[in-house]
């Protein structure tokens, strides 16, 4: 059994035979369901270099010994920021395996920077753990190549999709992404953290209709996959 817990914003905790954190922005996150020191992790996946996605990755990795997996350039940046005190796995778009977990890094249409300098490229991750397939889109707009993710690596058991607009897809675009991805379940994320990304997840659910089961999670809630 694999559990997927929403921690707020774009942060998720996947727990099965391994404990995996994705985009652990907790400190300074008004939605955060937990504190960084309350989490254990084996792997931490970072979709891009913005602060609301790298978040507390370094702090958590130092404490737990978790490996941080990210785009090659971002992994090097994180290693420098951590003064070499964390183990990073730098990769690029494509499949790999880290400690028995299948990880496919896929494109995302978004910027990636420290706020001043561009760092690597934005990505999403498809995680294969204990026979389940979970897609975290990162920050992105919808694009037709999403159909390949399901074709190559599906069926996707659950897709975690941003719906906030302004920086990412809004509900309409995310509903189109559901058509392309064909997931069994979908969880909206990256909305209502701040006013520019205020959205009604029920509108997203209405737009998706019967194309997938939409599960609206509050921070701290989880689903079994």
Automatic annotation (TrEMBL):
One of its GO terms (molecular function) is hydrolase activity. Signal peptide: none annotated. The keyword Transport does not apply. Keywords: Hydrolase. Residues 8-190 form the Metallo-beta-lactamase domain. It comes from the Archaea. Coiled coil: none annotated. Pfam families: Lactamase_B_3. HAMAP family: UPF0173 (MF_00457). Belongs to the UPF0173 family. This is UPF0173 metal-dependent hydrolase A3K92_07270. It comes from Thermococcus gorgonarius.
């Amino acid at each position: 059994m694999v559990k997927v817990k929403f921690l707020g914003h774009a942060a998720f905790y996947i727990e099965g035979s391994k404990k995996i954190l994705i985009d652990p922005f907790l400190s300074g996150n008004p939605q955060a369901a937990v504190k960084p020191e309350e989490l254990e992790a084996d792997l931490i996946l970072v979709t891009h270099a913005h602060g609301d996605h790298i978040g507390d990755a370094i702090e958590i990795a130092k404490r737990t010994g978790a490996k941080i997996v990210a785009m090659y350039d971002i992994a090097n940046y994180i290693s420098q920021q951590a003064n070499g005190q964390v183990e990073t796995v730098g990769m690029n778009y494509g499949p790999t395996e880290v400690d028995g977990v299948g990880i496919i890094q896929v494109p995302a249409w978004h910027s990636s920077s420290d706020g001043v300098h561009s760092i690597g490229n934005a990505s999403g991750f498809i995680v294969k753990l204990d026979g389940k397939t979970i897609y975290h889109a990162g920050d992105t707009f919808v694009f037709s190549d999403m159909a390949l993710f399901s074709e190559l690596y599906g069926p996707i058991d659950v897709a975690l999709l941003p719906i906030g607009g302004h920086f990412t897809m809004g509900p309409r675009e995310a509903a189109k992404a559901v058509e392309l991805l064909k997931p069994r379940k979908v969880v909206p994320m990256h909305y209502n953290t701040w006013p520019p990304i205020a959205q009604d997840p029920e509108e997203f659910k209405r737009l998706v209709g019967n194309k997938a089961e939409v599960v609206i999670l509050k921070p701290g809630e989880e689903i079994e996959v």
